[in-house]
Specification:
Layout (H helix, E strand, L loop, with lengths): L1 E3 L18 H6 L5 E6 L15 E11 L6 E10 L2 E8 L3 E15 L3 E12 L7 E14 L29 E11 L2 E12 L11 E2 L3 E6 L10 E12 L6 E7 L8 E8 L4 E9 L4 E7 L4 E2 L20 E9 L6 E14 L7 E12 L11 E3 L11 E6 L15 E6 L7 H4 L3 H19 L4 E4 L3 H4 L25 E9 L5 E13 L3 E6 L2 E6 L9 H21 L4 E5 L6 H18 L5 E7 L4 H18 L4 E8 L14 H5 L1 H19 L4 E7 L9 H9 L5 E7 L4 E8 L12 E9 L5 E7 L5 E2 L2 E10 L4 E10 L5 E6 L4 E10 L7 E7 L5 E3 L5 E6 L2 H6 L2 E9 L6 E5 L4 E3 L11 E7 L7 E8 L7 E12 L6
Parallel strand pairs: 21-37, 21-43, 22-23, 22-33, 23-24, 24-25, 25-30, 30-31, 31-32, 32-33
Antiparallel strand pairs: 1-41, 2-20, 3-4, 3-10, 4-5, 6-7, 7-8, 8-9, 9-10, 11-12, 12-20, 13-19, 14-17, 14-20, 15-16, 15-19, 16-18, 21-34, 26-27, 28-29, 34-35, 35-36, 36-42, 37-41, 38-42, 39-40, 39-42, 43-51, 44-51, 45-50, 46-49, 46-51, 47-48, 47-50
Helix pairs in contact: 3-5, 5-6, 9-10
């Protein structure tokens, strides 16, 4: 990054609105204008057909290899292209292929049969010993058959365990393969079953599925059963050669369908040569018989868990100079059946793009209050496993333990509070293991409340770490049959808890091996299921790997017992409930099934909800925070706070499945973590200082002076205190500011005051920025201390660079920030800042949340505004949380006024976006009606998750 401090003899005065009407928003509300186009690929020449001379065989040879815990299945993949066999691959736990791999020259493929010899060369990986090499001649005899439709009654032998093994893959399966194998291993004849599939081979210049029918004709069988959100089917084409697409703006696609529908859209993927995939989820609607879309490369996102290979890139940036593959397909988990589409054209396009002027960023110097909150939440700078080091001025820490545990900040430490978390994810529910569970939880709650009240400390109690996960899978702690009355088990029947209580002897001690049994509650939604190993317990509502309604019922009963007791003993304890994952998970199923019922059943004693987010687009959580607060305020008249208690990039694989990380991403993990945490915290301060209370990063490396923690948290360590108003005319250039030394719970050691300004470039390319900083009223300053995060893109070495100089006249700085670059200026202040906020914002929510807006089906809702606030307001804007808005698709009408177009908001799966647009004051009334629409045209609808109106006033200033 280059930095130039420009001394300009002008005094800066801010007159801009907090939510300016941006030129980029106007452009984003209309479709891109194409000035030239050329085909990316010849669709007529890029299809292929399945035949005995052209196919890929993927087969599992059950029990082929010896293992310590029993026979191991070997997975073999071989291809035949234009009659020539290609070297194959083999995968098996504890084994790896040698250079010879798999030879399939002995196989004979007929119309309905595949038979002959496979030769496998592999070695056993034994720790501390030389590899044992094996060459196995395996005879195959299998039938080739048609595909079978998967339905609710036929989805495999163990549907409860399939969620962790569902991997993103192509819908290229054309035939099934079933039969037997035979081999001689160590002088002993062995045999087993073969199951597999035939697909089109992956080869340069050819699609691995589909046929040519006036275009690339595709049928994606998505099934009729709801699955995990990353259920994807796609067709892939490896380009003839690696292409440089950087001179183009994006792609133009034309797609026809004989089955128009609004519940599915076509997605488009691009792959970098190094294997990293990016995608645009809702690229092309299928709402009409003929559909068109022009999509810009700048809108592609990392294909997190929805790619056929790795979705982890080393630098979060789609490298358009080295594109090797393209794919089209469908991401949809809702059981939508077969999706028919014919891709007519995929063109590279150049679009009109006006010259990009430097971003204009302003720090007004005016102190700011948002919904009564006027401080940067100190808890955003928190740590967990282990603590964030004191040198970074942590505002909170999280500690995991058991009942009645309480920890408070040590004297001299900087934390405003600590989060006590009771019970880990591998602990089964207390309700299942103790007949007196309710009394225990109540007693623990009273003891904790009394202890914290005696300490005179506002404690924060988090109830349970990630019950969403291991209660339900790996291994499913709450489904262990030892907790239930197996004697009453019938297939599909109710499941009742059975408590095993020790008999007590005359001496008051439990008698050895003497028990009595007490019937417990019947768990709603749990059912018995017989398997080959006996009876099992399942939750009929669990459609994926995380907890269903049955576990929800268990949690909420325990939460009520504990929360009520805590609050009765000490009302000041901040009681935090939740499930430890994103409540917007899987099309908001996490909210509908778990979080909302927990709120509704426990609203009297909960103060906040906790979540964990790893990887992905962190800005999605800020939209989710808006939905939580909107619901709490409108449904229960309670402001519920958001607590993140675990987060980071590329860690905690058990909570997200197997992380498939390319070597390049491993080498750059330090850089990714730095960017991830800077980006998350900066956006939280910008968008959610009134809603988020904590963010505890896991596995910091603060002892490494050049590590990501030292750079990210070192740069932000004085971003504390009173909020200061900022304005940016670029939605992807974020600026936050505060006055350090004004938060009594987050004071610097020297006790002084300083204006601290952080600028973050969220673009995936460098951005020129003109920054103007005005000092708070009543203060003066002479010096400016500039710091910037640095990275060597060749080695990904990180650093912090610092320079001190005189404060330029007018407070003007000219920056050129690299993609995802961060810059900070600290300006020591003399004098006193205003005692009251100079800018006050109040947000008024609609009670209607999580709505789908479709063609001909507008969503109409009301927002009640405080009349006094409305009279005193100087300006106002809509604040919305949305998903999947294409350019030119969405509009809103206020009252009987004109239609206001909304900017595009392409969102990846599990992502939602905050959109703001200014409104004229004369369009607002104490009860303002809003009608959200889809414009006429080739659109399939969008999602409105939350709608609100923000009123801004400046006390003491004339309107």
């Amino acid at each position: 990054m280059s930095l130039r401090i420009a001394v300009i003899g002008l005094v800066f005065v801010v007159l801009m609105a907090a939510c300016p009407a941006r030129a980029e928003d106007r452009r984003a509300s209309t479709a891109p204008v194409v000035v030239s186009a050329e085909p990316l690929i010849d669709l007529a020449k890029s299809t292929q057909a399945l035949s005995a001379r052209n196919f890929e065989l993927s087969a599992d040879l059950a029990g082929l290899l010896p293992g310590r815990k029993g026979p191991i299945t070997a997975s073999v993949t071989v291809s035949r292209i234009d009659g020539q066999w290609k070297p194959g691959t083999i995968k098996a736990p504890g084994f790896s292929a040698t250079a010879q791999g798999v030879s399939a020259g002995g196989l004979v493929v007929e119309d309905q049969r595949i038979s002959g010899m496979l030769r496998l060369a592999l070695k056993a990986d034994r720790e501390g010993a030389a590899p044992e090499e094996h060459t196995i001649a395996c005879t195959i005899d299998a039938q080739i058959g048609p595909l079978r439709q998967i339905t609710a009654d036929n989805r495999g032998p163990d549907p409860e365990e399939r969620f962790w093994v569902v991997q993103p893959q192509s819908q290229g399966m054309l035939r099934t393969v079933e039969g037997t194998w035979q081999a001689e291993i160590a002088g002993r004849a062995v045999s087993g079953d073969v199951t597999g599939r035939l697909t089109l081979p992956v080869r340069p210049g050819r699609w691995n599925m589909g046929a040519f029918d006036n275009g690339l004709s595709l049928v994606f069988d998505m099934g009729t059963v709801r699955q995990n959100w990353n259920h994807v089917r796609l067709a892939i084409c490896e380009l003839d050669k690696v292409r440089d697409l950087s001179a183009f703006s994006g792609l133009r696609l034309t797609v026809t369908t004989d089955q128009p529908r609004s519940d599915v859209s076509l997605s488009v993927w691009l792959r970098e040569e190094d294997g990293s995939w990016y995608y645009l989820k809702s690229a092309v609607p299928l709402a009409d018989r003929e559909n068109h879309a022009t999509v810009l490369f700048e809108d592609f996102a990392e294909a997190e868990w929805v790619s056929p290979g790795s979705h982890m890139d080393e630098d979060y940036v789609l490298d358009l100079t080295r594109i090797s593959h393209i794919a089209v397909g469908v991401v949809n988990s809702l059981g939508v059946g077969s999706v028919h589409a014919v891709v007519k054209e995929i063109d590279l396009v150049k679009c009109q793009a006006p010259p990009l002027a430097p971003a204009q960023v302003r720090v007004t110097g005016r102190t700011l209050s948002i919904n009564g909150h006027d401080l940067v939440p100190a808890g955003l700078f928190g740590g967990y496993a282990g603590d964030l080091p004191q040198e970074f001025r942590p505002g909170c820490q999280r500690v995991l333990g058991g009942p009645v545990m309480m920890r408070r900040p040590a004297p001299g430490d900087t934390e405003a509070f600590l989060i006590d978390c009771w019970f880990d994810r591998y602990s089964p529910a207390v309700l299942l293991g103790s007949h007196d569970w309710e009394q225990k939880l109540q007693q623990w709650g009273r003891e904790y409340g009394e202890k914290t009240r005696a300490a005179g400390y506002e404690a924060h109690l988090e109830f349970w770490n990630e019950p969403y996960l291991n209660w339900a899978t790996r291994p499913g702690k709450n489904y262990d049959v030892k907790y239930f009355n197996v004697a009453k088990a019938v297939e599909g029947g109710p499941v009742q808890v059975l408590y095993r209580v020790p008999e007590i002897g005359n001496d008051g001690k439990p008698l050895r091996d003497r028990f009595r049994h007490i019937d417990g509650p019947v768990i709603p939604h749990f059912a018995w299921k017989r398997s080959g190993e006996g009876w099992r317990v399942v939750d009929r509502t669990q459609f994926t790997y995380w907890s269903g309604l049955g576990n929800g019922w268990i949690y909420d009963r325990m939460c009520a017992a504990l929360g009520q007791a805590v609050k009765q003993a000490n009302p000041s304890v901040q009681f935090v409930a939740g499930w430890g994952f994103r409540w917007n998970e899987d099309h908001w199923a996490g909210w509908d099934m778990l979080y909302k019922p927990t709120i509704d059943r426990n609203i009297a004693w909960i103060d906040g909800l906790h979540e964990h987010h790893y990887q992905g687009d962190t800005t999605a959580m800020n939209g989710s925070y808006e939905v939580l607060v909107a619901y709490g305020k409108t449904a229960h008249d309670k402001w519920l706070y958001c607590y993140n208690t675990e987060t980071n990039d590329l860690v905690d694989a058990p909570a997200r499945g197997v992380v498939d990380t390319p070597e390049k991403a491993k080498a750059a993990s330090q850089y990714r973590k730095m960017v991830y945490n800077l980006r998350d915290i900066a956006y939280c301060i910008l968008q959610s200082p009134d809603k988020v209370r904590s963010r505890t990063v896991i596995h910091n490396n603060g002892k490494d002076k050049n590590g990501w923690t030292a750079v990210a948290y070192g740069l932000m360590k004085n971003l504390r205190g009173r909020l200061v108003e900022t304005v940016s005319d670029d939605r992807r250039v974020w600026c936050v500011a505060s006055i350090d030394g004004t938060d009594p719970r987050a004071m610097p050691k020297d006790g002084g005051k300083a204006l601290v300004v952080l600028v973050f470039n969220d673009h995936r390319k460098p951005r020129e920025i003109e920054l103007a900083v005005a000092l708070p009223a009543g203060t003066t300053a002479k010096t400016a201390i500039v710091e910037e995060a640095t990275v060597d893109r060749r080695t990904f070495a990180l650093g912090l660079r610092q320079a001190e100089s005189a404060l330029p006249e007018g407070g003007r700085f000219t920056l050129k920030l690299p993609d995802r670059g961060a810059w900070k200026v600290t300006i020591p202040l003399a004098g006193e800042v205003p005692s009251q906020p100079q800018v006050q914002r109040r947000q008024f929510f609609s009670p209607t949340i999580l709505q789908r807006v479709e063609r001909g089906k507008p969503v109409v809702l009301d927002v009640a505004l405080d009349e006094e606030q409305l009279k005193s307001a100087r300006r106002a804007w809509l604040r919305l949380v949305v998903e999947d808005i294409a350019p030119g698709e969405a509009a809103v009408i206020l009252g009987s006024g004109n239609s206001i177009d909304l900017p595009k908001a392409y969102t990846a799966d599990n992502v939602n976006a905050i959109v703001e647009t200014p409104v004229a004051m004369d369009k607002l009334s104490p009860r303002t009606r809003m009608e959200f629409r889809v414009h006429e045209g080739n659109f399939d609808g969008w999602r409105l998750n939350m709608a609100s109106i923000v009123l801004e006033s400046s006390p003491g200033e004339a309107r």
